[in-house]
Every structure is written in C-alpha cells, then in structure tokens.
Amino acid sequence: MSIASVIVDVPAKQTDREFDYLIPDKWKSIIRPGIRVVVPFGPRMVQGFVTGIKESSDLKKLREIKEPMDLEPVLNDELLQLGDWMTEQTLSFKVSALQAMLPAAMKAKYEKNVELTDLTSFDRMHEDVRSLFKHRKTLTWKEMLEAGKPSLFHKELQNGNLEVVYYVKNRLNKKTVRHVKPLLSTEELSEALDSLSASAKKQRQIVEHFLHAPESVSLKNLLEIVHSSAAAVKALVEKGILAEYDEEIYRDPYENRSFEETSAFRLTDEQAAALGPINAAVDAERNDIFLLYGITGSGKTEIYLQAIDKVIQNGKEAIMLVPEISLTPQTVKRFKERFGNQVAVLHSGLSVGEKYDEWRKIHRQEVKVVVGARSAVFAPFQNIGLIVIDEEHEGSYKQEEPPRYHARDIAIQRGLSHSCPVILGSATPSLESFARAQKGVYKLLSLTKRMNNSTLPSVEIVDMREELRTGNRSMFSEKLFAKLEDRLTKGEQTVLFLNKRGHSSFVMCRSCGVVINCPDCDISLTYHRSNHSLKCHYCGHEEGMPPVCPECGSDHIRFFGTGTQKVEEELGKILPNARVIRMDVDTTSKKGSHELLLNAFQEGKADILLGTQMIAKGLDFPNITLVGVLSADTMLHLPDFRASEKTFQLLTQVSGRAGRHQLKGEVVIQTYTPEHYSIELAARQDFDTFFEKEMEIRRLNHYPPYFYLALVTVFHEDLIKTVSVTEKITKYLRSNLSRQAIILGPVASPLSRVKNRYRYQCLIKYKREPGLNALLKNIINNFQQETAKGQLQIAIDLNPQMMM
Ligand code: ADP
Ligand code: ZN
Ligand code: ZN
Predict the structure, then answer these.
(1) What is the CA radius of gyration of the chain?
(2) Which of 134, 149, 587, 736 keeps 20 to 30 A from 352, CA to CA?
C-alpha cells in the first residue's frame, strides 16, 4: 500500500499541512513527490501537490487520489525543500509558496457543475428543472444560477436527483499548429499523381510539392506555397494520400526576430580582475556571494555574460535576474545574441501561454540560461552553476503579496543548495548589501571606470524655487531649456525624466487650498485628462471633475502636479519643432509598443524621449547627451525610511543614461530641495559618501541594516476594531519579545484607509529575536477565526520593502 502526503490548494490556516491519500494501483508508477494531483477534499475536488510518499499513515480511513495532473514532477526535490524554507521565512501558507514557483498557467481552475445523478432521475425531477436538462446531463454552476430557480434546484439536490460535481481543470493549453504530411512513399505519390484527374489542379500541385519535399509542413505554409485553399488538402486527406495532425509548438515571443551572434569582448583590466574570482568560484562550485559594485556603464553586464558562458561550458545552467522595468528588448537582445536559443526569457509582458512555454523549455532542460524578472529565480533547473541579480537594490525583487519573498534571499538559498556562486550587481547597492560586503560576508568586486573611456556626465542642480522668484513659472528652468534648444540644433538626443511615483496630478483649489480626496481612501484623486475625470489609484473610485470647489465654491480649481501628457503639451509650445516620444503606462500598455517606441528613438526618429520610471534603466543609446530630471523631489517626501536611498538610486540611474559612448553627457536635475544630501550626492555620483551618511542616519534611528524590521498591518472596516486588534498585537509582542526589541504602534499606516478599510500597523525593530516567528505565528492563529470570515485581515511582512 502506498500513501501520498499532499498539500491541498486551499490556502487557509486549518488546511496548511500535509494530508494523506491512498495512491490507486493504476497511478502507482506515476505519482511521486512534485507531481500535482486532483484529490477529494470535503465535498469538492481540489488540486494538491504531492510532497512525499510513505508506506503507512496514522489515519485508518483514507480517501484515494482521483488522478494525477502531471506525468513528470513539476517541482524537483530542491524546489520542494525551498518551499518548506520559504514557508518558514515568509510565514506564508505552504501551498502559496509552492504555487509561487510555477507559472500562472499552472494554477488550477475549478469548475462546478450540476449533473443528473443517473438517467432515471431525469423523469423524477420537477418539470421546470427537467426542461433545462433536455438532451444534456450537465449544467455549469453559472447556468444553474442564471436559470433563477434556486429553491427548485435545492430540492432536486436534496432528494438526490441532481448532484454537484467539482472539476479541477488544468488551465494550460499547449499551443498546436495544424500540420500536413504525406502518407505514401515517393513512388506511391507519383502513382497517386497519375490517378488524379487533370482538372484537380490544386490537388496535383500539392502532391507535386510533397514529391519534392516529402517532409511534414504546416498547413498554413503549404497553402501559401501552392496558393490553394484548405479544401484541396481535405480532398487528399480523404483519399488517404495525406494526413493532417496537430503538432505542439512553443509560443515564441521572439520568433520574428533574428539575433546576430556576438562574441565576448576583450575585458578591461578592471573587468578581468572582477571576473577572476567569479570564475574561480564557478569552477570550484563554491557558494560565494559577490557584490559587483560598478558605476553605470562600467561593463557589469559583459561580466555576467562571460561568467554565464563559463557556466555553460562547465555543463551547468545559469539564472539571470533583471528588474521588470530593465527587462527591455535591448537587455534581452544582449543575452540572445550571445547564447542564441539556449536562453529562455520570463517577464510579465509575455502572455500566460508564452510564459508557460518558456517555463517548459527550462523544465525540459532545453535551455541553459533564463533571463527574467523576480519569479525567474524559481527556474526549475537541476544543475545551477551561477545566479546573477542585476540592480540588486531594486525594490521590485520583493514580492508584496504572500508569499512575501525577496528574490535575493531565494537566490542565496538556492546558491547554497546547488553549491554555486551568486552575483549581486549594482551601481547603487542597497545599504544592506554594501554593509555585508564591508563586513566581508559578501565578496566586494568594484568597477570604477566607464567603458569607451567615457566619463560620467556632468550634473547640475537647478533650484526651482529660485526660478519662481525670478518669474519663470514654466516647468522648465532657464538652464534646461537652453540645453534642450542646444541639443535640437546639434541633432543630439535628450531624455526627460518625470518621476511619477508619489501624488502628482491631484486637484487643488487655489482659493482655499482644499485637495479632492477619494471618499474611501485617504489619498488624493488623480486627474485624468482623457475623460476629464478624477480617479482613485488604490480602489478605482471615479468621479467627474467638479466645475467649482466643493468647499468654497471658487472656480479656481485646477489639477496640480505634472503628468507626462502635460509636459508633452508644454514641449509642443516652447519647442514646436522638437519631435517627442512619450513613454508611460498609457503609451506602452499595448503589447510590443514599448519596444516600438524605443526602436523609433534609437533610429533617431525623435529628439526627446519623455517618460517615467520605465526609462530610468537599461537604455544605452550613443546619441543621448542630455538628461533632464523635471522634479527630483516627488520621491523624497514619501513616508518611507528608504526615501533618500531610493531618490539617490533613481537619480544616479537616470543620470547614467547620458554620455555612455563617445559623446559627452550632461544632466540637469530640477528640484525644490537642492540642499538635500541625497540629491547633492547623486549629482556627484558619490555613492561612498552617501553610504556613510545614510548609514549614520539608519544607525541613529534603528533602521536596517542595523536593525531588522517586521511589519504587522491590520485591516478592518471598523476603525475601533482595527485599532483594538492592533493594540492587542502590540501588547502581546511587547510582553514577549526581548528588551532590545523596539515595538512601534499601534499607528495608522501611511495609507490609512484603502477600499473603505482602515489600516493600522505595528512595526517591530529588532536585532536578534529567535522567538519572533513563533510569536507572529501565534498571532495569526489567535485571530484565525475572525480572519477566516474575511472581515479582519492581518498581514505580516518580514523585512518589508514597502512602508506604505
Ligand atoms: P553596465 O552593465 O555596467 O551598465 P555594460 O555591460 O552595459 O555596463 O557596458 C557598457 C557598454 O560597454 C556596453 O555597450 C557594452 O557593450 C560595452 N562593453 C562592455 N565591456 C566591454 C569591453 N570589455 N570592451 C568593449 N566594450 C565593452
Ligand atoms: Zn476652495
Ligand atoms: Zn479610493
């Protein structure tokens, strides 16, 4: 007798454990750990992951596994263990951790049907129900609800004429393409050709085609070659000459592109000095963690490429992580050009099906390298030789919903399992990583010079308050405007960066100063020009733009702050001849548009590239000689202890877009707080001083990397309830943690109400609290009855990245 331990797809506290199921004899050879199965669970059928096989169970009565969903394990032993680790580290449900490692297409879809119990039950049912079951045995749940006779159905269900049946569906659909092949040998084909009547021209042509090219061909191509319709093919299939069949193919998002192969550059001395220790660790299969700290354009990517090449030569595989917004076609191209079809690419721009296909290439060991955003860290390779995280400081490596993992932690954990090195790369490392490198926990490798002998661009800071004082009310300072004009005459290109994070285009009354807020969330509504409306970006609430101020009745009510559209309009006025490409969520929402716009800019079809965060990274165009930052402050004032660090990183990244090649670059940063150290130091590209200064502030305020953080957030519609639950949690932690721990709260979260729910939080700062995870688990357990009902929600974020 064999028994499988199964984690069921019911993410709840009570079901967050292994359940035992009997393995039916017919599935014995297939069911192994890492296989997904369909199992009965209560009255339903659910998906589950087999995590182990054993010979006996403590339980007497076991139910049977209904069927396997895979023939090959989708999670190998290493990933199953990683799931355990991740569950513990992030305090998430085991099933959520396992699910997070698989592409979305493999999430189970459930279908609920109402079916006739047997054929005789049809006659016994109420007429009105019976009429719905004419010629059919099944209604979907939705059809039943739409029929609008709940009590009648209920009765039939109770007296056993109908039953509710659950199905677990695999959502993944493999893509197939119709193919045609000859069923006959060449001689037989020419005989067949003779037997065809002369009037069957198209059929003859098709047979002739296969006489010359007997291999199978897609129906589409065949029809193109012979200029025929499908009917002629059908006729030949019926005559037994040809066969039609479906061939499974991969959806390849890059299929229409060819990549020229590139070979490795000769490394500079600095690059060689950095690659040496990495290669040594790759060869020695040593789990070293490197921090590759190199200014923008210093040739980090080339080092990744050559290290990965080494890994492939050693017969192993590599994972290359890049933040979502840097995963530009340009970046992908560099890897495809070097490693051709040995590369799989995983990013959110792909359709669910495309992602699944890329995942399968990895799973079937058909590729050696995966380039992808956060979740690519779970690539199901068996034999990893290197993991690289570029721009390791990026906040997007942390997943903000359960399981709240950080890709850096996962990479380091997998590096340990595979006994391979991990490279963290950045021009502006996170304080956490740089501090570890200084302590020798990570091995520091530095690149201090830019490629092509190009120097870092010169950066000027413009005080916008001063501009206002001298009467310039435009969003462009005198200086930036002059430089823009200059570039236009010289035919050089400019990047204009608008920081859209933070509250930009809110509506304010100039007479009384009132700001229009969302009625459900305590944040300002955003003005949308296209339909002259106001929208909440947290809950989706939408209302018309009021003609007069709702508070004082003044008609001096305007939207404030600047969106990219507004800047584009302004540019049209002051530089009517400039050709502008705007890149923001609106212009890049269509698939492929991102790439089209960038290509157009690269081909010189525009003078100015205007955009948000998405243009801060990864651009490497030789003709960009000017970068303008329209307002550097928006991020500086967010309620987040990393605000200065993020501002510094962003300004450094944006500045790095200029002058990467022969032409020298200039940067203009406009700000209302020119004296702020993160702006000053970013302008000087002085990471080392910034690091020292910021570390001092973190030390004084007990923030990472001196302290660890844990954030508990409580959500409820009722304010008093929200506060009292947070209060209880805070008290519990205070009385159970050590005296070294600092517990802040309860306080309202920076976003204190979203979607009509209040948010209160408790922030824990600590150095060493071995009991913390257990205490947090207790909290989840204690409130479990209430949270299960859905009213109350408690979120726990260990090492939070987002403080909002
Ligand atoms: P980073 O990743 O640090 O921003 P890149 O690897 O993108 O830097 O390098 C910047 C530019 O220099 C790229 O255009 C790259 O192709 C080029 N490059 C990198 N290494 C070399 C080298 N050893 N010789 C010549 N060109 C190089
Ligand atoms: Zn007013
Ligand atoms: Zn809202």
Answers:
(1) 31
(2) 587
Contact, 609 vs 493, CB < 8 A?
A: yes
Across-strand partners of 109?
169
Assigned CATH class of 708-798: alpha beta
The residue among 122, 154, 148, 150 whose CA lies nearest residue 135 is 122
Of all atoms in ligand 1, which is nearest to the CA of residue 298? 3
Q: Tell the CATH superfamily of the 3-105 domain.
A: PriA, 3(prime) DNA-binding domain (3.40.1440.60)
Binding site feature residues = 509, 512, 518, 521, 536, 539, 549, 552
Q: Counting ligands in written order, which one lies closest to the CA of residue 511? A: 2
**Considering every ligand atom, which ligand is closest to the CA of 522?**
3
Binding residues for Zn(2+): 509, 512, 518, 521, 536, 539, 549, 552
Please indicate, yes or no, whether the overall pTM of this predicted structure exceeds 0.90: no
Ligand positioned closest to the Cα atom of 516 = 2
Alpha carbon of 508 to ligand 2 centroid (Å): 8
* Ligand 2 centroid from CA 500, angstroms: 25
- Flag whether pLDDT at 171 surpasses 70: no
Cα 602 to averaged position of ligand 1 atoms, centre (Å): 18
Sequence-distant (6+) residues with CB within 8 A of 664 are 454, 455, 457, 458, 625
Spell out the domain ranges in the chain.
3-105, 110-169, 269-451, 458-505+561-697, 508-557, 708-798
Check pLDDT > 70 for residue 505: no
- Closest C-alpha to ligand 1, atom 10: 297
pLDDT at 560: 60
pLDDT band for position 766 (cuts 50, 70, 90): very high
Q: What is 622-691 written as a DSSP string?
A: TTEEEEEES-S-TTTTSS-TTHHHHHHHHHHHHHTTS--SSS--EEEEEES-TT-HHHHHHHTT-HHHHH
